[in-house]
Amino acid sequence: MAQILDALSADGVPLRFTAFDGSATGPADAAYGLDLKSPRGASYLATAPGDLGMARAYVAGDLDLVGVHPGDPYELLNAMGDLHFRMPPPKTAAAIARSLGVELLKPPPPPPQEVLPRWRRVAEGLRHSKVRDAEAIHHHYDVSNTFYEYVLGPSMTYTCACYPHDGATLEEAQENKYRLVFDKLRLKEGDHLLDIGCGWGGMVRYAARRGVHVIGATLSAEQAAWAQEAIRQEGLQDFAEVRHSDYRDVTETGFDAVSSIGLTEHIGVRNYAAYFAFIKDHLRTGGMLLNHSITRPDNRRTSTGPFIDRYVFPDGELIGSGTIIASAQDAGLEVRHEENLREHYARTLAGWCANLQANWDACVEEVGEATARVWGLYMAGSRVGFERNVVQLHQVLAVKLDDRGNAGLPLRPWWNA
Questions:
Q1: Does the pTM of the predicted model rise above 0.70?
Q2: How far apart are the C-alpha atoms of 334 and 254, rounded to whole Å?
Q3: What's a BP term from Gene Ontology annotated to this protein (predicted)?
């Protein structure tokens, strides 16, 4: 196994690799390593090269990460970012295939945490139909509210925080994010806000505490139930409501503002035109939109990669902020400001991983070790992605102009960045 890894590595192996056959490679004194424990793990790696095969082997327990906690394998994944593979010469590839043998080249059944590939999800409807979107959201968000409480912390906020200073805590940064969105939208007491993709209602309750009337919509039944109970406990029923609903089924119009925090990743790039047209139609003249979403650093690719698609966000799509801005403009909204919070998301993910590690035993008891492993791998890997500019996080602020092109806004930004 180790010789095969050496043959495929372009620049050497930067960490320690050991295998069930007794072979090893990489620095003997490396702080981090991989331990391939079984032939089934080798089959996972051989039949799905890349992140999907590694995820299958790791989630199934056939691959162990050495030197890191499964709740936060960031340091190892960061080191693996320097591991580059190459296509071996035909003779070497043939020799590798012979050494593995026929049995190891037969794909084992994937772990039960994995969903079907996109082309086999047709039974759930066309991609980004209401039924299929609901199923995708159910897969990711209806894991367990208790599990999310352990990982996200008291704010129950599953989107990028905004750190006001280096020493800010995760909770302070999440509160500051809601403050930033609230201020950018120029919300005030008596206004009406629509929060689409509202999660557990963090933005809904933040605005309602300040006298704003808010409707939140989420496709997750567990999120909606948790949010409605939180609203009741805070006595905010006269101001706030969270519906278990597709945002496209909201019929009220004339909102002073729309916030969309972490929804755009789920709706599909082809649906951007309809998405922004919906928002414009539901805003009053002079109303504002704050779109907060993960993006790519370019505007060419939309796929999220096989691991993310099969284990984390089925049917998720990412594109550059330029496409988001152009789509908002094409719908007739005027974009007034945008900013990239990429480094903030890396810090947010570090905070979530720290929570997962601190509550590991309870999380495993709640959802099982395999699912907990998926989350540690996904969040730590995403942290590496934000740090290395594989992904970004953009807030785009737009306004619905009147018929004469008037925005009715101050000449300069009115919020505290």
A1: yes
A2: 17
A3: lipid biosynthetic process
